[in-house]
Amino acid sequence: MAAFNSRLAGAQLERVSEFWANWWRAAGDAQKSLIDQFQSQMGQAKEHMREGYSFAARASEDATRLAASHMPA
Fold first, then answer.
1. What does the DSSP assignment read for 16-49?
2. Cα(37)–Cα(40) distance, rounded to whole angstroms?
3. Closest among 57, 55, 35 to 47, alpha carbons compared
4. pLDDT tens across 34-46, in order?
């Protein structure tokens, strides 16, 4: 009887350990996915900011040239 209980306890401990290992693996995968998604969105935001800055710089240069072309000589 003691040997049976020992084997049963070992099997239960193995199942519990497997459950928690899988749970932590899933939690880690979910966290990695969120971090990857955040980094991707930040990269996109950075690119949008760069494009906005370039557009503003070109518009400013164009406005300066236009104003200079209308100045009397």
1. HHHHHHHHHHHHHHHHHHHHHHHHHHHHHHHHHH
2. 5
3. 55
4. 999 999 999 999 9
At position 49, the amino acid (one-letter code) is M
Helix (H) or strand (E) segment spanning residue 10: helix 2-69
pLDDT at residue 57, rounded to an integer: 96
For 40-72, give one letter per residue: b (16+ CB within 10 A) or e: eeeeeeeeeeeeeeeeeeeeeeeeeeeeeeeee
Nearest to 49 by CA among 60, 59, 57: 57
Q: How far is CA 24 from CA 4, 42, 60, in A?
A: 30, 27, 53
In the block, tokens 């955040």 appear at 38
| pTM score, whole prediction | 0.59
